[in-house]
Recover the amino acids of this structure.
């Protein structure tokens, strides 16, 4: 069974190939069968292989499969090989299962779209590349998957390519992530130069022998890898592409820009955690970036009008939490939050997609309202997702995953009060913007007509994701409330357990209480501002117009980069367009042309002119001969 | 025997040469231009003869025979060209043959 590991990424690729070459020739009802079916089969394969991997005796640490030798050149050998361990297993599970649900949703959501087959082809291609990314046994193969998902992200953001704006958003996403990728690929070069291999297991073995903790080379490599992670995961300072990436269809936002691709940065840091542990400065930077990002994105989400942009900023903010968890060494908490976030954020995006489709592609929340009665199922599932995002205590999965990060950001040996404070403020803001979104969309007076009610496929995906967003949390329950540690135990063969500062275990319940109070407080504040006294939030908005527009524009990062990068670049490009180095050569051409015109003027074709020329020349020569 | 001074001969040659040159420059009829060239050639020939007799050397007369031969060849080629030109352009005006101006 384990020999069939290659089928997990293989099946979506086969689906993509069929859809690309079959294209419009395929019968329309066969398209979702191929598209969703291939990912569904891949999910089943994951179930079987995961079951066998976990029940194997003696419990295997990891499983390798070499499919073929990819590159073999004088000492540099890279195999096309897959590596299965508990960390990649978690990611594979999320990618295939959430991916399948989103494919199922798309089967109905995109049914009337012209590019139905094209959409599923891209989506399958994406799932295939994403699986290669998380299953790769060496960093080069992982980089292949890394760039592959970037390509698919570009293709799918610009899916509706007839609108110029979408193409612009796609290019923006591609170029900004490329900035991070460049840093990462330089990191890979240095890694190869140091170790002579790009095999992840090999690097993990050799790194602690070669470097001492805090060595400058380890720090450099860790920071370069972090650069790639920051670009892909839309963290500060490369976060500006994600809100614009919402130009793509909603299932794309759910799959790529919430559940899977944007968490690739979390994966790579967790995967290379050995290097990061040898570079405490880099690891601390990860935590600080996470804390800053979750605050900046949270405040931006508070002011957005567009439903999907709220969710986009919320995604940036939640990935900030994951980075924060990685930064304090809470590896398994980051992966746990990734999993729960994939469930509830995919659910929220799919719900938002259903809402937007229902109200005639209106994105502005202030023009929606009262949809609770019209779309009851979407409302309830969306509410469950929102509660999970807001981490309402006890009943939601988000509570358990976020609470763990809050606790460890304070209690971990690498944690400190400032990171904890940022996480706490972030949790409060999260609740406020989440319920602002819920109240504006589903409550209040009815402002729009519902034109399209979601059907069976959409409902199934929503309900399954809603269930996962609730019960997903019960696999990891804190010490003070029963102590279940399935995720941490599950991941312990790969990711080290977080070391906690001694003597503070007993205070965990205080942190939990604070988180619970803040969460409920945020809910009440949102209720007060947007339900009880709806005029109040306009007043607040009008009293701080500058701050409001500052947050609305995402802290003006776009204008900053416009001034810092785009304008100088365009300026230089404009100079270069005229090609200053070509100037001297053009001058030669112009001089030759000038003299040519003068000389050709003398070629009048009149014989007597030539004769006069000869005579004058003769006289000149004679004069010279006589006088000199 | 009275010897004509060499200066006279040279003055005659230069007068002839100038006449030929001026008529070459002002004439438009291409046959007249050919005749002018002949006059200039003969002026040069006279200058050679005069120089040869002045220094009592045969070289001057040898050169004149060369010039004579060359002039005969030149006239035959020139006349052939003129004939062709007349065929093509139906005129003997040299200014009409300006098709190859730059």
């Amino acid at each position: 069974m384990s020999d069939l590991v290659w089928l997990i990424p293989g099946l979506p690729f086969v689906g993509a190939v069929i859809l690309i070459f079959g294209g419009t020739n395929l019968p329309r009802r066969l398209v979702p069968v191929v598209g969703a079916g291939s990912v569904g089969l891949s999910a089943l394969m994951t179930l079987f292989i995961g079951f066998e991997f976990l029940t194997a005796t003696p419990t295997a640490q990891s499983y390798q499969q070499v499919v073929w030798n990819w590159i073999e050149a004088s000492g540099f050998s890279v195999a096309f090989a897959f590596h299965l361990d508990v960390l990649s297993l978690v990611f594979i599970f999320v990618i295939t299962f959430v991916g399948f649900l989103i494919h199922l949703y798309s089967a109905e959501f995109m049914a009337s779209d012209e590019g139905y087959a094209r959409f599923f082809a891209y989506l399958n291609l994406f799932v295939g590349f994403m699986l290669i990314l998380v299953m790769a046994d060496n960093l080069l193969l992982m980089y292949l998957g890394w760039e592959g998902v970037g390509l698919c992200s570009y293709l799918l953001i610009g899916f509706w390519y007839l609108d110029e704006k979408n193409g612009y958003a796609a290019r923006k996403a591609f170029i900004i992530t490329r900035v991070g990728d460049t840093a990462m690929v330089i990191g890979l070069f240095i890694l190869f130069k140091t170790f002579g291999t790009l095999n992840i297991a090999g690097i993990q073995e050799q790194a602690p022998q070669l470097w001492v903790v805090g060595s400058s080379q380890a720090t450099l490599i860790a920071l370069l890898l972090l650069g790639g992670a920051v670009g892909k995961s839309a963290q500060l300072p490369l976060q500006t592409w994600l809100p614009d990436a919402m130009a793509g269809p909603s299932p794309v936002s759910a799959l790529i820009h919430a559940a899977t691709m944007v968490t690739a940065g979390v994966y790579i840091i967790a995967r290379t955690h050995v290097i990061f542990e040898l570079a405490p400065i880099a690891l601390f930077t990860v935590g600080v970036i996470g804390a800053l990002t979750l605050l900046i994105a949270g405040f931006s989400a508070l002011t957005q009008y567009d439903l999907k942009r709220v969710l986009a900023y919320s995604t940036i903010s939640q990935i900030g939490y994951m980075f924060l968890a990685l930064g304090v060494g809470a590896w398994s908490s980051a992966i746990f939050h990734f999993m729960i976030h994939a469930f509830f954020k995919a659910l929220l995006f799919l719900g938002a997609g259903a809402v937007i489709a229902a109200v005639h592609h209106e994105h502005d929340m202030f023009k929606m309202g009262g949809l609770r009665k019209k779309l009851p199922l979407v409302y309830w599932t969306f509410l469950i997702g929102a509660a999970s995002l807001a981490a309402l205590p006890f009943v939601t999965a988000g509570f358990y995953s976020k609470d763990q990060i809050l606790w460890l950001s304070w209690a971990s040996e690498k944690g400190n009060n400032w990171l904890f404070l940022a996480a706490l403020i972030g949790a409060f803001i999260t609740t406020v913007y989440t319920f602002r979104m819920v109240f504006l969309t589903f409550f209040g007076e009815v402002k729009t007509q519902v034109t399209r009610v979601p059907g069976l496929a959409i409902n199934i995906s929503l309900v399954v994701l809603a269930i996962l967003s609730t019960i997903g949390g019960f696999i990891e329950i804190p010490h003070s409330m029963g102590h279940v540690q399935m995720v941490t135990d599950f991941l312990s063969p790969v990711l080290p357990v977080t070391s906690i500062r001694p003597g503070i275990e007993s205070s965990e319940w205080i942190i939990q209480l604070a988180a619970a109070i803040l969460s409920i407080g945020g809910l009440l504040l949102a209720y007060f501002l947007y339900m009880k006294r709806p005029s109040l939030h306009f007043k607040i908005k009008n009293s701080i117009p500058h701050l409001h527009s500052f947050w609305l524009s995402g802290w003006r990062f776009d204008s900053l980069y416009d001034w810092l990068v785009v304008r100088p670049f365009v300026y230089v490009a404009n100079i270069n367009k005229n090609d200053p180095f070509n100037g001297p050569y053009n001058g030669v051409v112009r001089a030759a042309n000038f003299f040519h015109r003068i000389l050709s003027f003398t070629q009048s074709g009149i014989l007597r002119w030539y004769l006069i020329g000869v005579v004058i020349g003769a006289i000149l020569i004679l004069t010279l001969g006589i006088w000199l | 025997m009275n010897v004509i001074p060499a200066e006279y001969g040279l003055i005659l040659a230069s007068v002839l040469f100038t006449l030929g040159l001026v008529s070459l420059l002002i004439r438009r009829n291409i046959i007249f231009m050919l005749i002018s060239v002949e006059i200039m050639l003969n002026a040069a020939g006279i200058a050679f003869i005069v120089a040869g007799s002045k220094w009592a050397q045969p070289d001057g007369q040898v050169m004149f025979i060369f010039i004579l031969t060359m002039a005969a060849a030149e006239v035959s080629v020139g006349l052939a060209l003129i004939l062709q030109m007349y065929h093509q352009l139906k005129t003997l005006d040299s200014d009409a043959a300006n098709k190859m101006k730059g």
Q: What stands out?
A: The domain at 7-90 of chain B is CATH 1.10.287.3510 (Helix Hairpins). Chain B touches chain A through 14 residues (CB under 8 Å). The mean pLDDT of chain B is 90.
